[in-house]
Design brief:
This protein has about 120 residues and is of the alpha+beta class. It has one domain: Alpha-Beta Plaits (2-Layer Sandwich). It is about 30% helix and about 30% strand. The protein is built from three helices and four strands; from the N terminus they run E-H-E-E-H-E-H. The longest helix has 18 residues.
Length: about 120
């Protein structure tokens, strides 16, 4: 059975042109921080023009724990490629990976797991 890895790539837009900023602001409703999700292709969230920061959220399945760091590398490369393809300059990228198999279950999750076994 595979492992689900959630990857969060954070960064800042760097000196966007007026046209780039206007395009991102116009598309802002589709990139709302209040409606975030983890997807294979990545979900981009930002709050321009108020803040220059963005977050990309990715989800990936890997075979074992040894592959978790590479999921982070792949996600950052996808985020960088997405930004570069649109000509958006970015800086200060950081990546955080979470192996969901390592996340402790809450009370409800434990109850559901007990029912399945």
């Amino acid at each position: 059975m595979g492992r689900t890895v959630r990857v969060t790539v954070r960064g800042s837009f760097d000196n966007l042109s007026a046209e780039q900023l206007a395009a991102l602001v116009a598309d802002g409703a589709g990139h709302d921080f209040l409606n975030t999700q983890y997807t294979p292709e990545g979900y981009l969230a930002y709050d321009l023009p108020g803040r220059p920061f963005f977050t990309f959220r990715f989800v990936e399945e890997v075979a074992d724990a040894d592959e978790v760091p590479q999921a982070g590398v792949r996600a950052q490369a996808k985020a960088e490629a997405w930004m570069a393809a649109r000509g958006y300059p970015v800086k200060n990228l950081t990546t955080q990976t979470v192996d969901m198999a390592e996340v402790p279950l809450g009370k409800r999750g434990r109850r559901e797991a007990e029912r399945k076994s």
